[in-house]
Amino acid sequence: MPDVIVIGAGNAALAAALSAREEGCSVLVLEKAPKAERGGNSAFTGGLFRFPFDDAMRDFPALLPHYSQEELDACVIPAYPRKQFQEDIERVTEGLADPMLVDALLANAYPTMKWLTDRGVRWMLATGRQSYKRGDKYHFFGNLNLEANGGGQGLSDREFEVAEQAGVEIMYETKASRLLTDANGGVIGVEIRKPDGARQPVEARAVVLACGGFEANEEMRCRYLGPDWELAHVRGTRFNTGDGIRMALDIDAQPHGHWSCGHAVQWDYMSPPTGDLAVGDLYQKHSYPIGIIVNKLGKRFVDEGADFRNYTYAKYGREVLKQPERFAVQIFDSKTIPVLRDEYRHKDVTKARCNTIEQLAEELTVDVQGLVETVREYNAAVQEGDFNPSVLDGKRTVGVTPPKTNWALRIDEPPFEGYAVTCGLTFTFGGLKIDRACRVQDTEDHPIPGLFAAGELVGGLFYYNYPGGTGLMAGATFGRLAGLSAAKRAKGA
User: What are phi and psi of 56, to 5 degrees?
Assistant: First the structure.
């Protein structure tokens, strides 16, 4: 009998498994996916982590021991104190984020980054995704600076390697179907379903749920998120179908958070229904702040420059879902095409490149007259000023709706490029209520003995939106804490 069972095998789950193992517990990880598709949603991400720090040049060398001082000096990275991180969360979640979860995240984020570093996770400065080069310096924006080497897949591979070296047992193609409880309602194990369909009880002293939200479950998406969400594409794994949430609710766990909302981005229009590990996160299209976005009618519908993409991208996919045929096009001209992010140059991209706006509209099946009028009105509304995409430059439009608040450049220098996008759902915000020790709470706010949770299935941290990079950071942070708490329970402490 293992001391601790961890359900799921993404970033949060592996952090939990490793931290419990380091406390001397035997640990079994249950992964519903086959080995070739392991890693949950984490493997599909860009591997970016958001954390607070007071001085990059003081705090980053411990995370980037392989970088030279010259390489660090080539980067301009504004400090990101804890108070600013807290304000960002409160601002984008409209003040609804659970203060306890926010405080626990902020207090443990940097120590968790250091913990992962000490276990061999290798970080890279995200110059290609999160900075613009001006002169001989990389100017970082949006307080998101480090990514795991190899992105989400590299992070996942390294975490599996460390966990396996530490003696964590992993069972693939093994679904947890039911939580086992004792006469007092405490969790004492899991019923599993093996690849051949056989069901078997596996007892344990503690169980950690870290198997994602319900984003890959069409019925649950429609039930909780609302009409048309069953038609959204799923950015990540096809295996996150809400199993952990359902099992916990079945034993009276308390639902918590924003159940009718989720993290949704602009995703390539011709992408498959669920994620493709060979492509990873490259179906995303995140350079929209320096262009414009139009719908099938050729009309703009969001303020592309409302804030850095790190604070708008997780909600703008939802806006695309509301458009005719769940379709939109991002448009750029020769001034901005050279600085588009790497995903725009991937071979699997739905795009057109033309010398006139009329041709571009025809190529991408957008109403020609509508787009021509939109571009003409937008160009006339652009105000003069210095364009600087590494800061909120205030270069805006006046007299058009919606406005563009920053980075407004005229779309007037051919060639023009358009990229067709739809809504890509990353993860759902509703889930289970936990306390600071990651103990799952019942409907009367009592901890369910033996049950812990971390990752996407924890509710209460994100509402409406989230600051980019907070998902992986929260997963690792609460995963580590859940593993420690589960180990304490298993050892009877």
Answer: -60, -40
- CATH class label, 4-214+429-490: alpha beta
DSSP character string of 314-353: HHHHHHHHTSGGG-EEEEE-TTTGGG--GGGGSSS--EEE
Instruction: Give the residue from 156, 149, 210 showing the smallest Cα distance to 39.
Output: 156
Type of residue numbered 70: E
Give the phi and the psi of residue 264 in degrees, each rounded to 5: -140, 130
Strand order in the sheet with 199-203: 175-181, 187-193, 199-203
Percent of the chain residues topping a pLDDT of 70: 100
246-305 pLDDT, tens digit each:
999 999 999 999 999 999 999 999 999 999 999 999 999 999 999 999 999 999 999 999
Phi, psi of 70 (to 5 degrees): -65, -40
| CATH number for the domain whose boundaries are 264-424 | 3.90.700.10
Nearest residue to 419 via CA among 229, 270, 233: 270
233 bridge partner residues: 424
Rounded to the nearest 5 degrees, what angle is found at the Cα of 457, between the Cα atoms of 453 and 459?
A: 95
- Give CA–CA dist 120/49, Å, rounded: 16
Task: With both helix axes pointing from N to C terminus, report the angle between 99-118 and 470-490 in degrees, rounded to the nearest 10.
Answer: 90
| pLDDT attached to residue 324 | 98
Q: Are 337 and 417 in contact (CB under 8 A)?
A: yes
- Strand segments (E) across 235-315: 255-256, 262-268, 292-295
Q: Does the pTM exceed 0.90? A: yes
- Residue 309's nearest CA partner among 97, 140, 106 is 140
pLDDT 10s digits, 109-123:
999 999 999 999 999
Residue ranges covered by each domain of the chain = 4-214+429-490, 264-424
Q: How far apart are the first and last CA of the chain?
A: 19
Strand pairing class (416-428; 262-268): antiparallel
CA distance 280 to 198: 33
Residues in the chain with pLDDT values less than 50: none
In this structure, the strands spanning 131-134 and 187-193 are unpaired
